[in-house]
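Suppose a colleague, Dr. K., hands you the sequence of a protein chain of 452 amino acids and asks what its three-dimensional shape might be. Before reaching for any lab equipment, you can write down a predicted structure in token form. Begin with the sequence itself:
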Amino acid sequence: MNIRKENKDELNAVVTVEITKEDYEPKVQEVLKDYRKKARIDGFRPGHVPLGLITRLYYTPVKVEEINKLVSNSLVEYLRNENIRILGDPLPHKDEEKTIDFEKQESFEFSFDLGLSPEFDLPVLSKVKIPYYKITVDEKMMEERIEELKKHYGRFEDVAEISETSMVRGNIFEANENGQIIEEGHKNEGTILSVDRIEDQEIRNLFIGKKQGDQILFDINKAFPKDSDRAAILGIDSKQLSGIRNTHLFTVTEIKQYVPAPLDQQFFDQVFGEGSVSTEEDFRQKVKEDLEKSLEREAEYRYTIDAKEILLSKAKIPLPEDFLKRWMFETNEGKISREEIEKDFSHFLNDLKWQLIVNKIARDNNFTATDEEIKEQAKNLARNQYLRYGLASVPDQYVESLANDLLAREDERNRIERQVLEERIYGWIKNNAKIEDKEIDVEGFKKLFETK
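The predicted structure, expressed as tokens, is then:
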């Protein structure tokens, strides 16, 4: 076997693999002998089929399969041993017009086009300016957050009369236009309705100001146009609505109002845990600290965007673009058109350049992701996944189990490993670049994402 490489330019090369019968024949014969042991052919006992017959039947397809394996494995080993870093995968040489006759030929030559990973230098980081935003917590944010918490931990209380936001319990009856209850009509005692869900303003006004024991005559179809809402109030299935009159009489039996939690010790304990905060001043400080922590995560995310964009703009990274377009088209087997490739190609190039930057920093600094770091990151992802389902406190064994499931999938493990590596590299960039701290308010910070 002989393998040679010819560089077309700094970014493209052709590798040719030459093989002879001596390279593949021993393996072919080994496979044919194994076929002989297992073959079931009429007229012969299992394991006693003549090798000559097996050879006539299977030699060529086995030969093709073993040659393909040999070429593929040899090419991978050659690239590894010669430390040749490539982009994408080797592709059959595009100028190759040779006709191969696997039945008659004994020696073969296969050529492959390679897209070479470029050599490039990173900018001197000590001269690279990257902004890092400190988002200020103002009084408006503080008040909005405190109001959110008060509403979250609020409660329903009895009130004397109905307002726009009251929750009203009562008895509802089918009635005629004079307000007389229809004896055999439908009724639902103890139903609950929310005044702000009434869509007709005139009917809503009929409820507002009413007290316990008062009655309201109204058109339920106008008040609640949605079948599901009417069915819920009447306590029936939506399919039963067709036999129900529009006019109903509602007798108020109970009025509740949702009242935000007061700034008291019970509220402080609910928000931050028992005994953590004892005064309003401490409570506000704790809210501010939590907001700052949340904003720090947002600022860190913004830093990663800026660091990536700035390094991409300063690092001059040439790429074999024609090869990459061909590789994307041929490896997707018709799933993507050339027009679609052209449309998204600039985004693809930026992603690829960033991968090359990450790989270079990792190589130059011997950065690796340890198994422990990968496992911990998988656990963090597992916890976040449970949080999306509203499960904040999940036993460790469930987190561990989900993390193991994630790591069992090779593509997922690779993605997690890359996350760990990128996190370390962003930290390294921050320690070596010229970080410019900038204060900014929330509105200004939001605008950063609108303009980029």
